[in-house]
Design brief:
heterodimer, A: about 350 residues, alpha/beta, Rossmann fold, globular, B: about 350 residues, 8-stranded mixed sheet, 11 helices, 12 strands, about 30% helix, binds adenosine-5'-triphosphate, binds iron/sulfur cluster, binds magnesium ion, ATP hydrolysis activity (chain B), Oligopep_ABC_C (chain B), transport (chain B), Oligopeptide transport system ATP-binding protein (chain B)
Amino acid sequence: MVAPPHAPHPLLTVDDLVVSFDGPLGTYRALNGVSFQVGAGETLAILGESGSGKSVTVRAVMALLPRHSATIERGTIRYDGEELSALPVRRTRELSATEMAMVFQDSLTALNPVVRVGQQIAELFRVRQRTSRREAWRRAVAGLERVGIPNAARRAHDYPHQFSGGMRQRVVIAMALALRPRLLIADEPTTALDVTVQAQIMDLLRELREADGMAMILITHDLGVVADVADRVAVMYAGTVVESGPLRTVYDAPAHPYTRGLMASVPAPDRPGERLTPIEGMPPSPLATPAGCPFHPRCPVARAACRTDRPVLRVVATGHEAACHYAEEVMAGVDVRGAA
Amino acid sequence: MSTSEARLEVRQLRVSYPVRGGLLRRAAEVHAVERLSLTVTAGRTLGLVGESGCGKSTLARAIVGLRRPTGGEIWYAGERVDDADAARRRRLTTQIQMVYQDPYSSLNPRKKVSFIVTEGWRVHRGQVPRDQWTDRTAELLARVGLAAELADRYPHQLSGGQRQRVGIARALAMSPRILVCDEPVSALDVSVQAQTLNLLADLRAELGLGYLFIAHDLSVVRHISDDLAVMYLGRIVETGPAATVYGAPAHPYTRALISAAPVPRPWASPPAERILLTGEVPSPASPPSGCRFRTRCGLAQPRCAEVEPELRTVAGREVACHYAESSLADGGPPVTAVTR
Ligand SMILES: Nc1ncnc2c1ncn2[C@@H]1O[C@H](COP(=O)(O)OP(=O)(O)OP(=O)(O)O)[C@@H](O)[C@H]1O
Ligand code: SF4
Ligand SMILES: [Mg+2]
């Protein structure tokens, strides 16, 4: 895959990643050739429906896949020129502790319930930067202040359950940003929160990203949240990236019928009550991914070739890639339903 | 019964939960729903929005008789429901059915779809004669867009969208006039959510159903609702025609809620006002004095802490705010309101 010209030195490059799981029903592929890049300081949103492989992808990057059941069958993950998949897991973990950090949807599971939050953050400075106890605590409090926790010096002594959901997510963000990572991965960071609190957290993430010049991978299923923060978007379907490109290009001139269907499924704020045009059917089970294009059973453009030949991700315009045999027609806005 | 009689009226409803604790360990009460009034009529949709914990689900459960109100009245088709004797109540409430948020936990995992759909007929004998069950079940499944074979499946063998359709079929089995839908599409992916919203719109048109549609996703509520009610800490703070409330919200909370909701294509609409609320919803166990919203409100004045504002008519909707006129005019003094 050729690096798009606007990102000459991608910070993270994932190429043709294939991950399988051993489950009770046999082995199945959760990722079937995932490719994408994130440039330094850039925010990439990964969009996709439940089970499309978003979390598995970023867990593979962070070396957080369950060791006994998951296998990386193929593909490469490069961080700043270093191939992570070739490194021992320990080195990846080290990198992922300092260079990359992750924020999960559920803030409760990310924190140790029996350790004061200040202590949990201070621990990072003590272990990774070998600072004194006192200095580590001071930095932890400063970190909590930075994410907008009121009375941080006092609240640092509290336990996770003493914080509200939104405040707890701030604590998790403070922890993730403690060592000033260059890449922050946020997996549905606001899904569990109310809209007004979600807006606060997204604003905070945007601010911190700009202040630190940090790159970000944001996973979400909310097209509106993506539109608010992302520079580029990667759309996943059935374990692969089916389209990626600049935010507005992907939203306004999608090149993949799935992306197009996704956009048409969302109620438009200015046309209440108008009949929606959902994608027919359901995403395939990972145990029975269709041959050819994985989207073909639901695709309004599908033709004979789609049932047998698997389309690969290819450049359809500068910085814009799609995995569809007929991407040019889709982009040109040919009435996909009529074309079937 | 004529359509005009199929009218659900909630008057000054209060629903309380006992809580233990406090200084003297005395039993206290939390009013999850407080002096709340609303009307749902056949063929129309009242959308109810609010953040988690504001009492939406408690209200829904009280309406369908799963929770006993501690004050106020519920009327259906000209008869009082909440103080009816068991038999009369059962007869009346078959016409008000509920669709639940979580299609995973609301269906009995050990029963087949055919059993789940016919469950109400087992309880309310005589509703549908036994020899018609098979035919009627097939009809119901077809009506909600499920293949007849699915009658023999168990819930775990269905997708989330299919499960939600089973939940809708189960509610329709009782030939209701009113459906209380508590977050019916929140657990569904965008494309499946669009299918379900279309189905609900079709059923409303074909069967003349009235919906109380509860959700936290404003774009979804806007899409399906004729009227809108906004709830905060157990009370309705604004209600009226959806286009009026959404188009020119008068309550500061409604304004914040609308401005916080991410829009899929922000560049396609004129730049919207952006209000970032500080803090989170206070505990319903100790609501603020006076106006319940005042602790997060940018317009709050001393009077707001002293006098609780009641709903009153302002510019074609009802709103509970002392300063609704100035809020509507220009947002009033922007104290904590941040406009970007
Ligand atoms: N630990 C695991 N063991 C076995 N299978 C797994 C495991 N984690 C994920 N999978 C499977 O891998 C596929 C991709 O899952 P993944 O969690 O990446 O989806 P996702 O896109 O993050 O979905 P969601 O939006 O629901 O979070 C799914 O079929 C899932 O069931
Ligand atoms: S390759 Fe064929 S089936 Fe796949 S998205 Fe394109 S047109 Fe549809
Ligand atoms: Mg996930």
